[in-house]
């Protein structure tokens, strides 16, 4: 009977401590204490979940959508919200099993990295790690790490308990958290309880086609154009990063170099190859040829693939070619990059480019897609324009832009007038580290590959 009464009191206390306090008089409470029954109101611990480190120096994001509300019970790895950084959309997932106590932001609010995002009520456990940030930004503490077989294991006490209960050697588990931290999901994958690489789908994601350009209908005698409204619109998302990056770019002393390219042979090669590429599920445009030609040329002129360390007045040469490509998407102009172009074939570059373009149209680009770019190309020719003046993306030191292909008269080998497909290419360089001769030599080499595509094969590319 005493045990039943004890359980009844504890259940009442958990459900509504204030009702409990009003119903239990002080004498009864004293008797409960004598019987070693817990009467404290703090049966749950409040933990703060901070916004994770998005990477790439991003300090603030816009909250685009909440997937939870205050009072809702969530589990570890459940989607919490979607945020829009200056470059990409990121879905934030829960680190805890518990109840949402407080949401710190409303839709379209600016959230700061490292600052509170959500408060959770979790089971009171003295061994619970007090880290108040998401798994992707959590730094290890001494209580969360131990050395097993010469390897430092980073995880939480609750994960260690699961491993112990299932006789799992944590040294054999691959951690996917920051700094190799072993997460609950890593153990579940190790035990084959969930598929490898399991990730919960976006709860509101709909694969709807996005029109790249929305052209308004023409005005007719029945259409009345409404007057412009005076309003103030704060910069957010991609427009905000453009504002910041272009303001920063004004500090760079630009110089521009332009050259014409006879695309006649490359057009023929691309036409011969595009059907075979399409059979492999790859759309082959001219851009992969430009990207590969740029990478080959950067091998000979590596200073164009560098960045400047202003504080130490030094040049940082990059051993890899991560070519950034400017793209028009529903979010605006974005510039993700294709990793390790110097190791890839033209077909592999085309495949990566297709994936980036598809992710950009759907708004699925991630911070990783933008990280560690070393050199940029922009193909504005699809929209028009000939000679351009592209703006350098700091901390890079060079950017190239291709204009549209035009059919123009040229002189043949015997002085006869022939029809040729001519495209202009324009490069902007940082004049603090790049001189005109270096730029001209680089562009001349790049042009030679595009005008004579067989050179790609001769050089093993």
Give an overview in words.
- By secondary structure, this protein is an alpha+beta fold.
- Helix content is 28%, strand content 25%.
- The protein has twelve helices and 20 strands.
- A six-stranded mixed β-sheet has the order 11-20-19-18-14-17, covered by helices on one side. It has a four-stranded antiparallel β-sheet with strand order 1-8-6-3, with no helix packed on it.
- A hairpin with a 5-residue loop joins strand 19 and strand 20.
- Helix 8 packs across helix 9 and helix 8 packs across helix 11.
- The chain is elongated and about 90 Å long.
- The N and C termini lie far apart (83 Å).
- About 13% of the residues have low confidence.
Helix share, percent: 25-40%
- Helical segment count: 12
Describe the main β-sheet briefly: 6 strands, mixed
Compute the separation of the termini in Å.
Answer: 83 Å
Instruction: Determine the mean pLDDT.
Output: 78
Radius of gyration over all CA atoms, rounded: 30 Å
Low-confidence stretches: 17-43, 126-143, 198-214
Class derived from helix and strand content: alpha+beta
Count the beta strands.
20
Q: Biggest sheet: strands side by side, in what order? A: 11-20-19-18-14-17
**Residue share in β-strands:** 15-25%
Write down the overall geometry.
elongated
């Amino acid at each position: 009977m005493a045990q039943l009464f004890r359980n009844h009191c504890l259940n009442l206390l958990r459900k509504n401590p204030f009702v409990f306090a009003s119903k239990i008089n002080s004498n009864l409470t004293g008797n409960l204490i004598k019987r070693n029954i817990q009467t404290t109101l703090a049966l749950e611990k409040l933990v703060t979940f901070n916004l994770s480190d998005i990477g790439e120096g991003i300090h603030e994001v816009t909250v685009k959508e909440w997937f939870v509300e205050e009072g809702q019970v969530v589990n570890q790895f459940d989607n919490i919200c979607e945020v829009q950084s200056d470059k990409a959309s990121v879905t934030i997932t829960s680190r805890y099993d518990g109840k949402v106590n407080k949401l710190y932001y409303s839709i379209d609010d600016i959230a700061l990295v490292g600052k509170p995002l959500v408060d959770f009520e979790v089971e009171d456990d003295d061994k619970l790690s007090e880290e108040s940030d998401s798994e992707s930004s959590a730094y290890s503490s001494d209580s969360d790490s131990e050395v097993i077989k010469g390897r430092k294991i980073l995880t939480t006490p609750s994960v260690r308990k699961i491993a112990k209960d299932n006789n799992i050697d944590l040294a054999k588990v691959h951690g996917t958290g920051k700094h190799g931290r072993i997460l609950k999901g890593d153990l579940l994958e190790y035990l084959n309880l969930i598929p490898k690489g399991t990730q919960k789908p976006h709860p509101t994601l709909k694969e709807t086609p996005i029109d790249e350009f929305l052209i308004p209908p023409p005005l007719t005698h029945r259409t009345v154009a409404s007057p412009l409204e005076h309003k103030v619109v704060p910069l957010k998302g991609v427009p905000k990063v453009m504002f910041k990056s272009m303001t920063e770019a004004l500090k760079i002393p630009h110089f521009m170099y332009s050259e014409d390219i006879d695309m006649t042979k490359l057009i023929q090669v691309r036409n011969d190859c595009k059907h075979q590429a399409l059979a492999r599920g790859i759309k082959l445009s001219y851009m992969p040829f430009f990207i590969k030609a740029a990478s080959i040329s950067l091998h000979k002129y590596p200073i164009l693939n560098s960045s400047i360390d202003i504080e130490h007045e030094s040049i940082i040469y990059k051993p890899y070619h991560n070519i950034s490509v400017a793209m028009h998407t529903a979010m605006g102009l974005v510039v993700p990059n294709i990793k390790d172009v110097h190791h890839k074939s033209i077909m592999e570059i085309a495949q990566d480019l297709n994936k980036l373009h598809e992710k950009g149209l759907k708004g699925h680009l991630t911070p990783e897609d933008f990280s560690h770019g070393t050199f940029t190309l922009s193909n504005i020719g699809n929209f028009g324009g000939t000679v351009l003046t592209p703006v350098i993306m700091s901390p890079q030191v060079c950017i190239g832009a291709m204009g549209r292909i035009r059919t123009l008269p040229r002189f043949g080998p015997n002085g006869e007038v022939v029809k040729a497909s001519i495209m202009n290419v324009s490069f902007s360089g940082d004049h603090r580290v790049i001189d005109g001769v270096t730029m001209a030599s680089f562009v001349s080499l790049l042009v030679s590959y595009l005008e004579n595509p067989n050179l790609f094969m001769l050089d093993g590319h």
